User: Fold this.
Amino acid sequence: MSQVYLTVAYDGTNYHGSALQAGEPETIEAYLNRAIRGATGEDSPVIGASRTDAGVHARGAVFVFATESTIPADRFVYVLNHLLPEDIRVVESHPVPDDFHPRRQEARKTYEYRILNTPWADPTRRLYTWHVPRPVDVTRMQKAAEYLAGEHDFTSFCNVDSTAQSHVRTITAISVSREGDEIILRITGNGFLYNMVRIIAGTLTQIGWGWREPDDMERILSACDRAAAGCTAPPQGLILAGYDFLQSPH
Amino acid sequence: MSQVYLTVAYDGTNYHGSALQAGEPETIEAYLNRAIRGATGEDSPVIGASRTDAGVHARGAVFVFATESTIPADRFVYVLNHLLPEDIRVVESHPVPDDFHPRRQEARKTYEYRILNTPWADPTRRLYTWHVPRPVDVTRMQKAAEYLAGEHDFTSFCNVDSTAQSHVRTITAISVSREGDEIILRITGNGFLYNMVRIIAGTLTQIGWGWREPDDMERILSACDRAAAGCTAPPQGLILAGYDFLQSPH
Assistant:
């Protein structure tokens, strides 16, 4: 028995999120599990390092699975891509120690949120950006984002349906930049709550519009109340960019 | 009666090309015509400046239509977008003289062709790039592209089903550049033959692979034979970037 580590990119448009759900065949994990069964004959469900919602994309999602197959771990990238739909791609596979559990390792995870700030939406980017026609002041967003760096209770930026025991998380890096006609929020941390990046993106955008002040962020954080923050930005602007495991998974 | 000029962006993935076809409701022009009928009550088919194939995209396609409506020409952008699917967007509308015919004006048209040169395809760009995993030498493509600038008989770069009376066209600018993990071919000219940009993209890519030499371009051009050139690159990498009418359409 050995364990295989997969880095996976996907277009979340046509899926009901990444996580396996009973009776729901259209999830990323369900497709990965079927591909593994096709490759090895084994029923060996993947363990995901995190879950993404319907419509959210990934460039570097991480999954592991156990197998007794003689297929070398680094060859699974070829075998699985052959068995997966083209909107799910394994970009790399390698062996990983049996005791590596992707949710029990210390890791930094990076998300990007893309806002298309043009008068009219671009049809070819409609599935990968949040189209915001109203002018946005990026400097205001940058000032507001600074309040979020570090360790905080992020209850205000968490969907009320969250079942997490603690809402304390650490954001190690956060930036907002204008790149061409897009505004890109990049955020790295040790863990993220349910809808956390999307609520941060929605709140920062309202600050960029002038609806709220950059230093309101301090009050929003300390309220520990979802109602204090702004809207949840839509899923299609969000992409799970990648992981940095503090202990190398190689 | 007045004439309205529309600049239109679309994602060609879900359409059978831009041009109206009898019995085919899923074309860009069919949707524009239905939206105009919805806005004005008039049956006033658009005239397109050019046609794109199924799966080809546009950022700056041009259409005109005649109307007796009292809707100001520059307001059609709002009215039509309300009536169009979100993968077709009017980006601008304005009045244009009645004698302006978009195919009878001297114009320069620019196309871009995007090649994704990575080992594995990116799911979120699969509909907007040609995924080419094999290494490509861009310098060889650039050298080969130089032979195409200027006035030539482009029969070798034209689908054999072309009904054009002359295959002589002028390319006023052509460039190939690597931008991140993509290779982008930009090509401007006074007119393009059926599949011309896609055959140029396919042939240049084969030269970039080392299958043909850059100076083979001279022989391919002079052969005036489609069989002399390389493959037709797939439609999804192609986007009609925009028009530059020598006589202003304003």
Remarks:
- The helical segments of chain A are 28-40, 76-83, 138-146, 196-209, 216-223.
- The first strand of chain A starts at residue 2 and ends at 10.
- DSSP finds five helices and ten strands in chain A.
- Chain A has a mean pLDDT of 96.
